[in-house]
Amino acid sequence: RKEVEQDPGPFNVPEGATVAFNCTYSNSASQSFFWYRQDCRKEPKLLMSVYSSGNEDGRFTAQLNRASQYISLLIRDSKLSDSATYLCVVNRGGGNKLVFGAGTILRVKS
Amino acid sequence: DTAVSQTPKYLVTQMGNDKSIKCEQNLGHDTMYWYKQDSKKFLKIMFSYNNKELIINETVPNRFSPKSPDKAHLNLHINSLELGDSAVYFCASSRDLTDTQYFGPGTRLTVL
Question: Which end of chain A, N or C, is less packed with Cβ atoms under 10 Å?
C-alpha cells in the first residue's frame, strides 16, 4: 500500500462545476499536509497548506481529518486554467521529507 | 528572476555514461533537495542538504552522488547510467528544514 493514496482520475468536468478530490495517508506521525499543483511537463507548485480547521483560498477549500487520515480539496466554479494534476503531499518530518501521492488529473472543458 | 534553476533542461545519453545535473537557488535558502519523478509520475525524494550537510539520503543506488559546494548549489552526479534512471529530476529548496519547498523546472534525463 502506498503511503499517500489518491484517485488518479481523470476528472473531466465542465467549466463552472464543483469538483472534490480525496486523499488518504497511512503514516499517523505525518506532521503537515499540502496540495500541490503540477501542470504538464512543469514543476510542482504549492497550491495550499491543509489544516484540521479547514482553510479556504478563493475557490479552493482544503480540509484535513487526522482521525481518519484523510485530506480533501474542493474546487468551486472550475476554470479552464484549473486543468492540471493535483498532488496530495504529506510532510513526514525527519528533515522536511515530503511524500507525494501519484496525483489526480483534472480536465476542465468549455 | 529564476528562483530555483537547473541545468541542463534536457539530457540524452547512453547507458554506462556518467553525467551531472546542476541546481542553483537565489532565494537565500539553507536547505536543498533532489527528487525523481518516474514514468508513472511518482515524485520521490532522493536527497536533502541543509547548510551543505546531508540530511536525507533515501534508498538510492550509490551511483547517485549529491554534492553541495555551497548553500546555493546542489549538484547531482550519476555514474554508470542505466535505462531505469530515465526520469525527470527536480531540485527544490526551502528556507529551513520546516518551511515550504520551491521546485526548479526539472531536468528530463533519457538514457538510451
Answer: N
